[in-house]
Amino acid sequence: MPNTLSRTKSTYFAKQLSFYLILIAIPFIILLLLELTLRLSSFGDDYPLFIEKPTNKTQPTLYLQPNPKVINRYFSDETLAPKVSPDTVYFKKEKSEASFRIFIQGGSTAAGFPYGRWGSLQGMLAQRFKRLYPNKEIEIINTAMAAVNSYTLLDFVDEIIEQKPDLVLIYAGHNEYLGIMGVGSAFAAKGGRFATLMHLKFKGWRIYQLLQKLYSFGFSPDTQPSKLNKTLMSQVAKEKEIPLNSDLYQQGITQFTGNMSLILQKYQTAGIPVVLGNLVSNESGQVPFSSVEKVDWQKINRSLSKDNAAPAIARLNSRLSVDKKAENYYQLALNLQLSGRFSEAKQAFVLAKDNDLLRFRAPSEFNVIIESLTKQYGAGLVDVQAMFNENSTQGIVGNKLILEHLHPTIEGYFLLAEAFVDYITEHNVIVSTTAIVPAISLTTSTIPSAETYSRDKARADIPISAVDALYGDFVIHNLVNDFPFTSSMNPGKKDIVLPTSRKFEKQALIKRIEKKSWLTIQKQLLVEYQQRKEVPQAAKIAGAISTAMVDNHKASYIAGQLYQQLKDWPLASYYHNKAFQQQAENVHYILALAQDYFFLKEYAQSLLLLEKADSLVVESSPQKQKILQHKASVQQRLNNTE
User: Fold this and answer.
1) Do residues 276 and 421 make contact, with C-beta atoms less than 8 angstroms apart?
2) Is the pLDDT of residue 69 over 70?
3) DSSP assigned state of 397
4) At what angle do helices 569-582 and 553-565 cross, to 10 degrees?
């Protein structure tokens, strides 16, 4: 009897447990069904970080690219998203065994603003690596874009890991307060860091997107910024005053530290090396933004003199003992600089930036955090600050290297990339190996290496064209005539001012401003420069086309021919080899590359190519005799060197 009673009780409890489990499961089943229904009905969007390169329907897709609409994933209403996107960079859908794949993460500086791709870390490094590692297949993919901060970087990590990177480079931190989802931004997520992290987790769910739209419909977003006649900086400024060490300031510190820790943890777990650059910004050439409406800086600059510097320093030090405002530190720095007290001046400029209430520049504390995180997670540290200090007058970073508050000049971008180049070469991050070349084995031992190709020589290779530079000047002119560089949030419509330039370059600039086809503009410039016999500029344009159009062997061949005219045999061989790898049976490409190797004194490689050309040309061809003559000449040189 007791056993029967026990079994009855067990059955009762089992049924009761099953009932409650079913009861609990019902809401989740309903939610799952709703999610499936929304997906099947094509409600909502995913906005993956990488999408397939557009191609003809008859052709297979071999390449991926960063999604130009990826920023929309952070906005329930796409019309509210700022018009920013990663540059269009194609990379192989299936990574080859020979490839060394680098991903770059960051904000507008890492993206190359205002010059675009060719001023970015990606553009500068790609050009540098053509000489440093000519026989290595290196893919560099930039996911950086303006206005994003560590939340976006964190959100991208898993998708980057899926693409099997060999190295990740990060330069980020300036957008932490006023970037998208930053603690002081008009685009800030509501509810603090935990809520923002949950938002990143759930934003892909259609139910969550539905709730967002319902919320937006029911509660009109009256705090969203207007885009009319405004730069991105004027759109994002919401919390204009974030005092040093305030609650909001500390939230930014917590946000940056926590998010960067999660990023490094993920890469560390995946076994992917990461290199972080510390941050640099304009110290002497940018007045504190929070002082623009309060201080007549033109009047102060007119009154500066060596004779008045000493009493001004005493007066400002006395004032700072009770009133640590950014404008006081900045005035002190100007007078210290006049007095030749440069180390003290630098310190005062940094304190002026740190106490600037409008935080468009990262405080110096961020560099301490970056250094600490690299030690904690075994990441590499690139001392960008030291590179800029060494190349600035008296070690104070100013307008020589920074355009406005933080975006580098052309020379500044070159030095930013060089800081990463120094780390990569010194630590042997990229091991140079012989590339896999179709149908023939080649080596390139005499191509200049990192040790022999100097920084001064590399400056001549900067990939920013004359029109890129003009476009940068135009963008910066518009930027500094708006908030926060002016005292008004709504300065009104401004006349368009184009930089002084030659007529055909100005026409190309106007087309770029009007968002016309980049490739069409470059092709027109290439023809124009060739007609004017301006071969260096023509070669730079052709090289850019070849780099951008990864599968265009004709563009690579043209670039190689132009570098041959310049007798730049290393770059000529780089582009000719690129064309040859895509069209290994093209006799013109083979002969061009053979010529490059001949002048590089790589006679064995030149002879191999000539023998291949000989095997492809029929006896009756006029080329046959020339190839035989070249073979004899190269063989003689080879015999003399043995």
Assistant:
1) no
2) yes
3) -
4) 160
Provide the whole-model pTM: 0.88
Tell me the HSE value of 307 on the side-chain side, using a 13 A CA sphere.
1
SS3 of residue 101 by DSSP: strand
Lowest-confidence pick of 139-148, 387-396, 431-440, 600-609 = 431-440
> What's the half-sphere exposure (Cβ side, CA atoms, 13 Å) at 341?
15
Q: Higher confidence at residue 469 or residue 193?
A: 469
What is the pLDDT, as a whole number, of residue 598? 94
Peptide bond into 68 cis (omega under 30): no
| Whole-angstrom distance, CA of residue 294 vs CA of residue 305 | 22
DSSP one-letter code for 102: E
Tokens 């885009």 belong to which residue? 227
Domain boundaries, given as residue ranges, for the chain: 1-43, 50-283+361-426, 289-354, 536-642
pLDDT in tens, 474-494: 999 999 988 889 875 544 445
Three-class SS state of 355? coil
Q: Which CATH number fits domain 50-283+361-426: 3.90.550.10, 1.10.10.10, 2.60.40.1080, 3.40.50.1110?
A: 3.40.50.1110
Distances (CA, A) of 293 to 33, 178, 302, 334, 354: 56, 19, 18, 19, 18
* β 99-106/91-92 pair status: unpaired
What is the four-CA torsion angle of 430, 435, 441, 444, rounded to 10 degrees?
Answer: -50
pLDDT tens-digit readout, 7-56: 665 666 666 666 556 667 677 677 576 657 756 766 667 889 999 998 76
The pLDDT confidence band at residue 132, using thresholds 50, 70 and 90, is very high
Query: What is the torsional sign of CA 487, 491, 495, 500?
Result: positive
3-state SS string for 50-111? EEECCCCCCCCCCEEEECCCHHHHHCCCHHHCCCCCCCCCCEECCCCCCEEEEEEEECHHHH
In the block, residue with structure tokens 């006395």: 318
Helix (H) / strand (E) element for 455: namely: helix 455-459
The highest-level CATH class for domain 536-642 is mainly alpha
Element (H, E) at 461: none
| Nearest Cα residue to 423 out of 384, 470, 479, 457 | 384
Integer CA distances (angstroms), 453 to 68, 410, 456, 544, in order: 36, 20, 8, 21
Higher pLDDT pick, 537 / 55: 537
What percent of the chain has pLDDT above 70? 82
Residue appearing with tokens 């980020």: 172
- Sole residue written with tokens 């092709």: 523
Question: What pLDDT score was predicted for residue 240?
Answer: 73
